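User: Could you go from structure to sequence for me? I need the amino acid at each position, not a summary. Structure tokens:
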């Protein structure tokens, strides 16, 4: 059994999450631009959907949490990729140091 991590793939996923953050920010803006309305604007719909404000608050909180996660996760993933690279380099250095030096023949000046 083997385990291999590709730091470049982790960084690629971090970039995708950054794009997701921007999408969530756009979604939050859209929701507020099209979902918020005052009591004066509600009319009959306001009477029929009294839970709208509570639902909007819940949606706002959910999108806010998603923004926090998608903002912090790319940074953490890049740190993880760096950690894997450093660990791999240290392991390679230790492995190289454990081998005996290769015999070298003296250079001939002929």
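Assistant: Here is the amino acid at each position, in order:
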């Amino acid at each position: 059994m083997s385990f291999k991590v590709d730091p470049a793939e982790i960084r690629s996923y971090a970039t995708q999450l950054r794009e997701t953050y921007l999408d969530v920010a756009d979604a939050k803006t859209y929701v507020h631009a099209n979902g918020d309305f005052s009591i004066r604007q509600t009319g009959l719909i306001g009477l029929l959907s009294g839970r709208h404000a509570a639902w909007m608050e819940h949606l706002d909180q959910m999108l806010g949490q998603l923004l926090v996660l998608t903002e912090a996760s790319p940074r953490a993933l890049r740190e993880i990729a760096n950690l894997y690279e450093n660990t791999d380099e240290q392991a390679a250095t230790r492995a190289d140091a454990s081998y005996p030096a290769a015999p070298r023949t003296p250079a001939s000046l002929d």
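One structural detail worth keeping in mind: The mean pLDDT is 85.
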